[in-house]
Amino acid sequence: MTLAHTAGRALLLCLTGLALAGLRPLAAQDITVSPVQWTDPAHAPDDIPGFKQQPRLNVPADLKSSPDINYVLFEATVDEKGNPVRLDTDATFALLQREYLATNLAFRFTPGRRDGKPVNTSITFALVLNPASAAPTAPDASPRLLELAPARVKTLPPRPAADEPLIVYADITVGTDGRITSVRNTPTDFAQPIFLAAKAWRFAPARRGGQPVEADLHVPFVLHERESMPKGKSTLPRALDRVPPVYPHIMRLSGLRGEVLVDFVVDIEGRVRNPFVVRSLNPAFDDPAIEAVRKWRFAPGRVNDVPVNTHMQVPIVFQLDEAGGGEDGMETRRRPNFSKLPPELRYDVSPKIRSAARPVFPYSALVAGKSGRAVVSMLIDQQGHVVQTHVAEASAPEFGAALVAAVERFSYEPALKDGRPSLALLRFEQEFTQNPNWGVVSVNDLDLLRRERKRADTIMSGRDLDETPVAISRQPPRIPLSLAGKPVDGEAVVEFLIDEDGRARLPRTISATDPALGYEAVQAIASWRFEPATHAGRPVIARVVVPIHFKSE
Q1: Cα–Cα distance between 350 and 345 in angstroms, integer?
Q2: Domains and CATH numbers, the chain
Q3: Rounded to two decimals, what is the model's pTM?
């Protein structure tokens, strides 16, 4: 998505505190808990799990006036004791996802049974937030959503994070019996999955003068990608030991709340492989989240009783006080001057940061002892994604390019206009200073920089190591937004150091077919971790050169 012209000053964000938006409970008649359904009815046991206690969810005040249906869709694996050992969530609005995580809503079930015995089961259910117009007792009302199902597709388009839902809106007609009788205006590629999902949706029909009537609605469908695992009876990994994350000591004075989404694979031995951060509210929590997940152990996933590698994503929440407490560390510093913005960029409720990334200090400037500053403008779409960036100010080009590579990994709860998602234009400012207290460069980075200058002979090359370093966490690079929509088949060669703890340090571009690819590769590699490199059996600092290949779909 692009705009031919954007003007004016917008929001300026910085890494300081912002209290969470005020939340107020939704009245009981405004929330619908859908019946529990089988994820795959064809292989379902005899008895479906049920709630031991009906779940309740608070709703952000910003959505109280929304005229639309919104929902949080859950897909859970429930073990033989009724515990949800896997709980994936998709929300039609990120505010709902955030509220669910903030309240630590706990689900407990009676277990599913086959032949009278408790078994692992896979189920779906939803918390549906109907608008005020769908009140259950009013004589005149719009349709009230009661039951729903996701639209399952073979392959989804690429997304920054696998947990980010793909939402497609469609026009439907709800009959007097509460069933969908017509589905219209859907994208051609997803028309059939949406039509099949619509068969499972149920409403309390619209009413006029207390009598059921037919009504049209514009509703969101969540698209789910069908699993590509081998066919057969499958069992997902079951957690045996989940070490809780340790709140970082350096952050205790701040009391900030952190949310980190970690991607990993559970291998055939039940061990966690290649955990990396997909999304993070505050980068200070990234390493503790990875450390915790690396220690987890599972009973491996199986297909037809054969262990298989299983891909998973899990949110890790850090907070010092009770559920929902703590600030998220972001602050709105300036309201935009809407008089200088086009109507499509004017909103009522500002976007709220959902994920941030720490920029990488350009190596050439670090070596030269040069500090700097950059300001990047970004366009946020109706799903909270950064879809366009522009360097508004930069003391040197490398600072602007480095900040763009970080900002393109940001995500937001979208702005609201009249209760609906809206486009927004934001500005993000970053000071690049060699003072480690500012967080862009660390004490360890500066120590290694001095070592490169004065004791380069103590840094081992690949041929001096006992064996090739083994990666344990590698965040994949992305296609830069400046190249989006273009055929990309390029490469960036990056050199970096691996310290004695296995962390990638001081990445720098050796060559790149496009400068943006070099900055993106450096941004990704800065988060990589390895088993410590060794020489004669002892951990050492190693110099590594890797090529990163970029190819568009």
Answers
A1: 11
A2: 11-15+343-438 (3.30.2420.10), 23-225 (no CATH), 243-318 (3.30.2420.10), 443-551 (3.30.2420.10)
A3: 0.72
